[in-house]
Amino acid sequence: MSDTLDLARIDATLLQELMDKVSDFGSTGDGGVDRPALTDDHRAARDWFAGEMSARGYEVLVDDIGNLYGRIALAGPDAPLVMIGSHLDSQPRGGRFDGAYGVVAALAAVETWRRELAARGQAPGCNFVIVDWMNEEGARFQPSLLGSSVFAGGVSRDFALARTDREGRSVADELRRTGYMGADPAPQPDCYLEIHIEGDSKMEQAGARIAPFVRHWGALKLRIEVTGEQNHTGPTPMEDRHDAVLGAAHIIAKVRELADTAPDTLYTSVARVDISPNSPNIVPGKAVLFCELRAPEPEMLEWSEAELRAALPGLAQKAAVTAGIVSVDRRPAGKFDSRLVTLAEAAADAFGYPRMRLDTIGGHDAVAVNAILPAIVVAVPSVNGVIHRNDEYTSPEDLAAGGDVLVEMIRRIDTAKGSLDLAAEGA
């Protein structure tokens, strides 16, 4: 355990104040929030957060894909740059902690460490930048992790700007409308830290309060188009119907069957179906399925994709329709930086917080960023494992514990002047 005199606990009052305030934007009145990317409520949350950073002396920047940054130079222009953050957009009728906690905790942690530097008379070794990534959730615009993927070079800016929502409004249009089509150069950090709620019940069951994610699962996000023939639901004989939704139902059942064939190594879903013309008196002419396949190993994703592709013609034939995959977004599996895992564990141990290691099955911006620089996601427990729902909840004590760990990681990296090797060795 580290010398307790070196430890600095996060300003829990500031963290809670920020958490309470950000939860007002898009509040659904039942504990949840509804602020998908580039909606008016999302813009209001970002405007407020930009103001909070500016008032504390941060240089507020917005890049050309709408990522929001607050940069503060404490150690001079050539010092290493540590990036910390997450995202302020939410799922429709989602939870108030997912993403937002990581953003406000980043500000509270850096502010805590600035105060500690002054109190100790210690010279800073690093500069810091807080980030709110654009469209992490992928609820309104697909794919998810859009802003961080452009930042990391995983997708092109032109591709991202052209994504549209259900009403046909593009990312480019909505960035301009909300005032977040920036022109500032994106910062070039040396590492990235993200704190997040777990979104599962493993930590709660194990009695753990801190869990660095060691691996991130890969994901395939497929859009499947089922084409039938629009007709009247009354007089059209059953044998003459070409029902796109019936074809979709066969495909959805197959997607679940794949997961049942490979328990614990493949997660699947079809969580959105767009039906046309979506009238109760019309045999549907078209259905678009948003399908996800997630696995920790690339071989499992390759197998599941091949199985689904091979099954599509026969499944479609059952409903006298056609079906095809029209787009695929691929996110490879990988590992987070082992030095940052060690740092997170050492920080937890320093405070005596029980810990464990986990994989993340869900995506995080750190997954995209991890492709180009050392990155980590550190989790705190979710009560009953709930996420993406109004009753998503993490206690103030666990939020503060995660903040303590974040501050301690910052302290060790800063003291090592940005060297993750030295910071990890000192752990």
UniProtKB/TrEMBL annotation:
Entry-linked CDD domains: M20_bAS
One annotated GO molecular function: metal ion binding
Keywords of the record: Hydrolase, Metal-binding, Zinc
Keyword Metal-binding appears in the UniProt entry: yes
Span of domain Peptidase M20 dimerisation: 216-312
Residues noted as binding Zn(2+) 2 in the record, renumbered to the chain: 98, 137, 388
Binding site for Zn(2+) 1: 87, 98, 196
Cofactor(s) in the UniProt record: Zn(2+)
Cofactor detail note: Binds 2 Zn(2+) ions per subunit.
InterPro entries assigned to the protein according to its UniProt record, in alphabetical order: Amidase_Cbmase, Bact_exopeptidase_dim_dom, Peptidase_M20, Peptidase_M20_dimer
One Pfam family cited in the UniProt record for this chain: M20_dimer
Family note: Belongs to the peptidase M20 family.
Protein name in UniProt: Allantoate amidohydrolase
